[in-house]
């Protein structure tokens, strides 16, 4: 993993495709996050730049237009959405022309119609499948229609249920709001079934992106360990976690093996900076001028260093290398202090 490399390339060295999440990476709400636009435009000078989003409420062209307004040079083709990934799954289960019940917004309806399906909002139309995605206007009435349509388990002759994603939260300008996972969970609670998931952390959305760009060495940037980083790792893709969205330093230190990023960034400017080497001498782990020691059940800060991000990197490297879970340690609060920007 790049986190333990002794060389000093930037995270972008050798990358032939840069993929970025949107919420919490490029923007929070309608506004761009600090340094995101300049950093991404600079990265796009040397390689294709694409975007992967679990948000199913908007069309790819609408997302691209928003990104252009923020100053990025984005076309609709550069945006890979969870509804597009859902279509990959749906085509294997339901033939084009079938009626599909939609819980969600315009982005999901657009992809279904483009794929040749007929859209309904009512379980009374005998839909062949239910596809569920986030939209701010989704409420009880739409969730109830999904529950009516999904009353019979699929293994007993019921219809397929595909969720674009199951993100529990969405970062917004005013704070953290409920995401599609909460809405999918409401239907699950009502019917006792689990949805098949198309978006992160499942592979379909990553496979769609890699196939679309023909990449061999992609790097994915995200702000969530459980969806972005775990998904990239499952897809065999290098990843970078940026601390401008959902997950914080304390989550990084506790990250399980399947959701540990190759790079930890405080903001996207660090894509272009040499990534510091991690030096392990005995029980001391050093990144930059920050050092951490593992002393039995105690994680001790030897030197805080001059960059908070390097202290997080050193702490993560030291804890991860032990193979022990975070709850087996006493961790000083200073190690997971959070001076980094977040929405």
Can you characterise this structure?
There is one protein chain. The chain has 343 residues and is of the alpha/beta class. The protein folds into three domains: 2-82 and 201-272, Rossmann fold (3-Layer(aba) Sandwich); 87-197, 3-Layer(aba) Sandwich (Rossmann fold), CATH 3.40.50.1000; 278-336, no CATH class. Helix content is 29%, strand content 22%. It has helices at residues 36-43, 60-70, 82-91, 106-114, 140-149, 180-191, 203-213, 225-234, 249-253, 308-322; strands at residues 17-20, 27-28, 31-32, 49-53, 79-81, 99-103, 118-120, 129-132, 161-163, 169-172, 175-178, 196-197, 218-222, 238-242, 263-265, 278-281, 284-287, 290-295, 298-303. A six-stranded parallel beta sheet has the order 5-4-1-13-14-15, with helices on both faces. A five-stranded parallel beta sheet has the order 7-6-8-9-12, with helices on both faces. A hairpin with a 2-residue loop joins β18 and β19 (298-303). α3 crosses α7 and α5 packs across α6. The radius of gyration is 21 Å and the shape is globular.
